[in-house]
């Protein structure tokens, strides 16, 4: 008998460290994730791609530049991907968050992240290009199960899965209905879902993740009236965080978890 999803707290303001504390360290590295945790983020956000050799890698881009040529992540091995530099060095203003020396700034695979953090953090995982990666849903669930991160009794869910692909989310829902799912949208104008879209999404999702520029009070109220949580992305401005919190959003994706913590603590 499947265990229903742990409800996400409605009245809370979850702080989701977008690619870790990615304003301060190269996103998707263990260092950026550890910094988000030290700052007090509720979740670390991980974008997932899958390499040619079947590794789930924490990476935003589905195409990378290797040997001066553009290549799909799906066509290169994880070892090749690791030759890339994730970029940005540490922000010197944030060295007060002392990190273990062993945390380098390399691109990592999901298994390394799960092994390193275990169950001491909560994971908010995005399946980035599921149509390009057949089997990514099963492999993700296999790893989460292997690390005993599913079907637990925690105050907030240990794992949330998000995607722009409803097909992919529905597949996860069919395989493992206990995981709260967030359907992502990117609106070019004001956020709005048709009746049909609402009917479809409420069948499987706990909430929606929406680009912050498109969000307004009316949309947030509408989602809440449908029992859908609202998690805008990506919110780095302190005043915007305050406004969104006063509008009752249920969490934000941010590159600056330290600022979001300050806002939440000021409440
Ligand atoms: O997953 C929410 C948000 O992160 C989507 O945008 O492009 O930063 O993955 P992106
Ligand atoms: Ca993302």
TrEMBL record:
Matching SUPFAM superfamilies: PLC-like phosphodiesterases (SSF51695)
Keyword annotations from UniProtKB, A to Z: Signal
Pfam families: GDPD
Residue stretches making up the GP-PDE domain: 13-264
Classification via InterPro entries: GP_PDE_dom (IPR030395), PLC-like_Pdiesterase_TIM-brl (IPR017946)
PANTHER family xref list: GLYCEROPHOSPHODIESTER PHOSPHODIESTERASE, GLYCEROPHOSPHORYL DIESTER PHOSPHODIESTERASE
Protein name as annotated: Glycerophosphodiester phosphodiesterase family protein
Source organism: Paenisporosarcina macmurdoensis
Lineage, uppermost ranks: Bacteria, Bacillati, Bacillota, Bacilli, Bacillales
């Amino acid at each position: 008998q499947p265990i229903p999803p742990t409800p996400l707290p409605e009245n809370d303001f979850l702080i989701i460290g977008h690619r870790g504390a990615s304003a301060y360290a190269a996103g998707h590295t263990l260092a950026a994730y550890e910094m988000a945790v030290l700052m007090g983020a509720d979740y670390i956000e991980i974008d997932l791609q899958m390499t040619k050799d079947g590794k789930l890698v924490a990476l935003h881009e589905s195409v990378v530049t290797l040997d001066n040529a553009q290549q799909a992540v799906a066509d290169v091995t994880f070892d090749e991907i690791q030759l890339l530099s994730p970029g940005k060095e540490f922000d010197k203003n944030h060295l007060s968050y002392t990190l273990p020396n062993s945390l380098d700034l390399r691109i990592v695979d999901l298994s390394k992240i799960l092994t390193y953090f275990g169950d001491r953090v909560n994971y908010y995982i995005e399946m980035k290009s599921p149509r390009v990666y057949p089997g990514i849903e099963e492999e993700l669930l296999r790893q989460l199960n292997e690390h005993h991160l599913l079907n637990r009794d925690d105050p907030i869910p240990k794992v949330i899965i998000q995607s722009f692909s409803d097909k992919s989310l529905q597949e996860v829902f069919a395989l493992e209905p206990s995981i709260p799912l967030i359907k992502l949208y990117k609106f070019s104008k004001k956020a709005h879902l048709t009746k049909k879209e609402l009917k479809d999404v409420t069948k499987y999702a706990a909430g929606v993740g929406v680009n912050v520029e498109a969000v307004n009070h009316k949309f947030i109220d509408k989602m809440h009236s449908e029992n859908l949580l609202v998690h805008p992305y990506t919110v780095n401005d302190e005043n915007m965080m305050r406004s969104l919190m006063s509008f009752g959003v249920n969490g934000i994706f941010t590159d600056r978890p330290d600022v979001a913590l300050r806002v939440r603590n000021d409440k």
